[in-house]
Amino acid sequence: MLIARSGLPGARCLLLSLLLLTVWEAGSGQLHYSVQEEAKHGTFVGRIAQDLGLELEDLVPRLFRVASKGRGDLLEVNLQNGILFVNSRIDREELCGRSAECSIHLEVIVDRPLQVFHVEVEVKDINDNPPMFSVTEQKISIPESRLLDSRFPLEGASDADVGENAMITYKLSSNEFFILNIISKKDKGKFPVLVLRKLLDREENPQLKLLLTATDGGKPEFTGSVSVFIFVLDANDNAPTFDRSVYEVKMYENQLNQTLVIWLNASDADEGINKEMVYSFSSLVPAIIRRKFLINEMTGEIKVNDYIDFEDRNIYEIHVDVTDKGAPPMVGHCTVLVEVLDENDNSPEVVVTSLALPVEENAQVGTVVALISVSDQDSGANGQVICSLTPHIPFKLVSTFKNYYSLVLDSTLDRETISEYELVVTARDGGSPSLWASASLLVEVADVNDNAPVFAQSEYTVFVKENNPPGCHIFTVSAHDADARENALVSYSLVERRVGERALSSYVSVHAESGKVYALQPLDHEELELLQFQVSARDSGVPPLGSNVTLQVFVLDENDNAPALLRPWTQGAGGSVSELVSRSVGAGHVVAKVRAVDADSGYNAWLSYELLPAKGSARSPFRVGLYTGEISTTRLLDEADAPSQSLLILVKDHGEPALTATTTVLVSLVENGQTPKASLRASAGAADAEVALVDVNVYLIIAICAISSLLVLTLLLYTALRCSEAPTEGACRPGKPTLVCSSAVGSWSYSQQRRQVCSGESPPKTDLMAFSPSIPPGSGSGDSGVQQEIFENLFLFVGHGVKGLKYIFSFNPNSFMIICKILYIELSKF
Ligand SMILES: *[C@@H]1O[C@H](CO)[C@@H](O)[C@H](O)[C@H]1NC(C)=O
Ligand SMILES: *[C@@H]1O[C@H](CO)[C@@H](O)[C@H](O)[C@H]1NC(C)=O
Ligand SMILES: *[C@@H]1O[C@H](CO)[C@@H](O)[C@H](O)[C@H]1NC(C)=O
Description:
Layout: H1 2-6, H2 12-28, E1 31-36, E2 44-46, H3 48-52, H4 56-59, E3 65-68, E4 75-78, E5 83-86, H5 92-96, E6 103-110, E7 115-124, E8 131-132, E9 137-143, E10 151-153, E11 158-159, E12 169-172, E13 178-185, E14 189-196, E15 207-215, E16 223-233, E17 241-242, E18 246-252, E19 260-263, E20 266-267, E21 277-281, H6 287-292, E22 293-295, E23 301-304, E24 315-324, E25 331-341, E26 349-355, E27 359-360, E28 368-375, E29 385-390, E30 395-401, E31 404-409, E32 420-429, E33 436-446, E34 454-455, E35 459-465, E36 472-476, E37 479-480, E38 491-495, E39 498-499, E40 502-503, E41 508-510, E42 516-519, E43 530-538, E44 546-556, E45 564-565, H7 571-574, E46 577-582, E47 590-593, E48 596-597, E49 607-612, E50 622-624, E51 630-633, E52 644-653, E53 660-670, H8 677-681, H9 684-725, H10 754-757, H11 784-792, E54 795-800, E55 805-812, E56 817-825
Parallel strand pairs: 1-7, 9-16, 18-25, 27-33, 35-44, 46-53
Antiparallel strand pairs: 2-5, 3-6, 4-5, 6-7, 8-11, 10-14, 12-15, 13-14, 15-16, 17-20, 19-23, 21-24, 22-23, 24-25, 26-28, 28-31, 29-32, 30-31, 32-33, 34-37, 36-42, 38-43, 39-40, 41-42, 43-44, 45-48, 47-51, 49-52, 50-51, 52-53, 54-55, 55-56
The protein binds 2-acetamido-2-deoxy-beta-D-glucopyranose (3 copies).
């Protein structure tokens, strides 16, 4: 300071005076007052006049004045009492700012002598200023990731006062995160610093509001405060999370593509980019799941992306990651369990696994024909299958094990009735609606030789005309076998037997395959009228089955035998026969009787006699009985008649064409008295025998007629009784015999219903025949009577009674008479 002053060249004088003053001051002391700032007007400061040693009465004359450099009139002196007082408000801070010492320098000047006094008035500080912050609030951003003990300086407060009044202490509102630390810097005072004591968490406390209070040291103290806003900045310290770790989803199979399975919502407590999330399948998720499901990275929706088939897989475990976009990213996890529910989307399947086909028709009930297995891939009721069979006869399904069935024969089979069965096995599951499947099965029934060949009738009647050509086909037997193939292949054979002296096979043969029956040789009615034999039919099964049919071959008569004259009328024997007739005999006298027989039968054996007119003789007195063969006179003989007459007699049968024989009778007319015995004697022995024979025959015929009549009568009565008892049955109705064969000659007819006609229970002799006549040709006047009878009568029974004897019984329903007619007598056969 001194050096500086000495450095001022033009002020040596002033310097000297200042030195003097300083000495004075030092010697006399300098007045020093103090006054508190902000004192009231008029506040007493000091008795300045007295203290300077000035007289009160000198003040005015000596022009006592106080000058203050630039300070105006803060202080004033009362010239009356020489007291310095506060004239106007003194603000220390205004006066001195922040300097610790503050005083007002007064120059007190009095004239005469001029004296200058320096008075120092110290302005004492009072605490009139609170600590002040420059801003009303402070904002600090702190990342939540800051470590403990991190420090964050705050702006401090300032106090316009000085000294104690400016000694600021800070205080922080109570909080758990920060404490206040004060840093003192040498010149610049104290600075508050926030120190992190507890880790921040934005997610918990994104913002903190603290109050920093500054207090000065004055008495009384003043405080000032500022709000400190702490913004906690986000750090990626939170992983995205799902609200559950496992989500269970149930869904039906066969969902449409893109059906939503689950919408995952993860949350991230962070903010901004730290909470932006990306969903993805975890790396653990196998490819199959990645194919079946699709996750939307942005939204977290999991959707179906492929066919979901319960039967394929029924549970999916999907691990999902969610990653935020912070740095470093954080990952959250969850598991989605997708349980696939079954739908009835699978039809049952029917498999026929094994077949024992074809089934033999004699298979036992219970025979297993096929094994059937059914399956359904669905589960629960959807997979429960019920099997049914149509038609359910004659097979049935037997459940052997769950879903395995046997097709079992339930009743007996017969290939001949039904040769194959088309079975349908239907499997139906228990879903709703239920699905079904069916399998059809053709069960063939294999043939077993259980049917013998069968003839349509048990016996056949065949009519064959005699004199057939050798080897002619007379009949065809045919048997039907209901079996199949070789079991139905029928072969025919003759059941061999003896016919008289000969073997049957010399008469007939049967073609093994065709069943044609051939007559091997010409048949002769006169030798064999009825050939009865059996044809056997056998099939080719193993073992073979067979049956027999009876053939009755009637050999029909042909007119192949001419009438034969009996001795003595035989032409070749002794020429003509001579008869002696007395001229005196009357008309109608029987002269002789011509006898002839015919080996044929029926009309073919019915003989008639005719007298052929002799040459020249205009008028013969003789005639011959048409059927009797009796030669008798027609009138009285007279002289005109030649004594010897030759009568030519024609014997004719009724065959077609008729066969004839002739004989000549020589009649010699003798006068009365002449005995004819001579001529007769020649043939007496023969005639006697003949008469005796005729007598025997007549008795025989009568006896037979009587017996036969009785028999027929009995039969008729019995029949009539039966018919009257049961008239509706019709079995015994007369008439309508079925005609099987008719010959032009007379119609020997054979009735199929002959047993009915003759009343069933007691069948008559097998050779009884019904005879339905037709008009025989060439009816003469004499046989019209017989014919008439035949026409009127309904039944004609032909009896083969005694050997060689044939007779006809006819019954006339009009007259109720039984007529017996003997057609001829085969005397030769006696
Ligand atoms: C996810 O959010 C969506 C839309 O708000 C909602 O439909 C869905 O159910 C939520 N997912 C879960 C699993 O809560
Ligand atoms: C399902 O839809 C997606 C997208 O449209 C497609 O890629 C996928 O092939 C579909 N899946 C099936 C099975 O159709
Ligand atoms: C057929 O006739 C023969 C010979 O009489 C006999 O052996 C056989 O048993 C008969 N067959 C039948 C099926 O009656």
